Amino acid sequence: MQAGFPHTVMQVTPALQVGGVERTTIEIAEALAAAGGRCVVVSRGGRLERELARTGAELVRLPVDSKNPLVMLANVRRLRDLAQSRQVRILHARSRAPAWSTLAAARSLGLPLVTTYHGVYSAQSPWKRFYNSIMARGDIVIANSHFTKAHILQTYEVDPGRVPVIPRGVDVKRFDPKAVSPERIAALREAWHVPNDCQRSLVLLPARLSRWKGHGLLIEAAARVEARQPGRLRLILVGAVDDSAYHSELQRLAFARGLGNLVSLVGHVEDMPAALMLADLAVFPSIRAEAFGRGAIEAQAMQRPVIASDLGGMAETIAPGETGLLCTAGDVAGLAAAMESILAMSDAQKAAMGAAGRARVMALFCETRLKSATLDVYRGLINKASG
Predict the structure, then answer these.
(1) What is the band of 123 on the pLDDT scale with cuts at 50, 70, 90?
(2) pLDDT at residue 222 is higher than 90
(3) Are the C-beta atoms of 16 and 47 separated by less than 8 Å?
(4) Alpha-carbon 171 to chain mean position
(5) Minimal CB count within 10 Å: which of 7, 168, 230, 360?
(6) Start-end ranges of CATH 3.40.50.2000 in the chain?
(7) Residue 18, pLDDT score
């Protein structure tokens, strides 16, 4: 990574829970510290506060997640005063509600504003389209995939030169098969009640329990595989529960399709590298386009074959036939066939696919590329402001 960035950047992030916005906020805080700069993070806070603190960044807790117009207006003054007191050179907003306050603060101080499109926002009304438009008003608008950039340019009148594509990155030191001890894998195997002599292939879907992530689709596809090849697989659904009713629905579906105890819903897992090492295959059957889809590159970094829906940014992360397979979204038969295709591979073929996946991540989706490219954006804005 390039060195030499002796400036302060303020990142404004709604919360510090688990998610791509939060993870990228922390990664850029790390990059700024490594380059000799300083990072101030303004957020409601959350479970990742301790991890942020390890980067040396300053956390200032403000209600920037609020959509209350009066709170958003008060946040303008708070952000402006904070930026002045910390001698901030660039403001970086990562979500819509805080971006409105951050834009006003940046303009009042004559400072550059960066926004990052972490998701593709739907707009069912002119008002919602206007509300979303704040994310396209930065001096630089970072898109996390080419799919996201295309959406921005189709939706708003934005100079394409203001919209660089900077994919999200993976910490390839953490997500490295060589870094995961057998003890960590054994601990998860015991927690998930997977026998040591289990002959079934373990298929992992790592995603929070939201309907559009396609958990039900995977269960339906697995039932078809099991009907044709009894004793072939077992499903592990990893992710925080967004909807308890959906959780119960998935359990009922598994029993209705004859899978019974072959589907485990294990909730949130901290040690995702070990979870991926325990799996034989990672599947991402989303039925709605994702702006990026970090899970697929984490799985490939761990040298696991992947299957994903041919939608949105996730389709950019997989080289079909080389690092995994893409399927038509919502196609149960196609997903079942893809699973059978990979599970039928020899160990050598699956190892070759896994190795190709890690090599692709190292070349295109490494965390250091995200950091370096973002710091280059900051440098460009400061150089421009300096004339």
Answers:
(1) confident
(2) yes
(3) yes
(4) 12
(5) 230
(6) 8-169+366-385, 177-364
(7) 73
Q: Which of 190, 339, 160 is nearest to 266 (CA)?
A: 190
| Percent with pLDDT over 90 in the chain | 78
Superfamily of domain 8-169+366-385: Glycogen Phosphorylase B; (3.40.50.2000)
Q: Which residues pair with 3 in a beta bridge?
A: none
For 183-202, b/e burial (b = at least 16 CB within 10 A) is: ebbeebbeebebeeeeebbb
Q: Are 268 and 18 within 8 A, CB to CB?
A: yes
Residue in 99, 107, 98 with CA at minimum distance from that of residue 80 = 107
The string of pLDDT tens digits covering residues 18-45 is 777 888 999 999 999 999 999 999 999 9
Q: Rounded distance, CA 166 to CA 12, Å?
A: 18
- CA dihedral in degrees (328, 331, 335, 336; nearest 10)? -150
Average per-residue pLDDT in the chain?
92
Specify the long-range contacts of residues 82-88, CB closer than 8 Å, at least 24 apart: 82/10, 82/40, 82/42, 83/10, 83/109, 83/111, 84/109, 86/8, 86/10, 86/38, 86/40, 86/58, 87/8, 88/8, 88/9, 88/10, 88/40
pLDDT bracket for residue 128 (50, 70, 90): confident
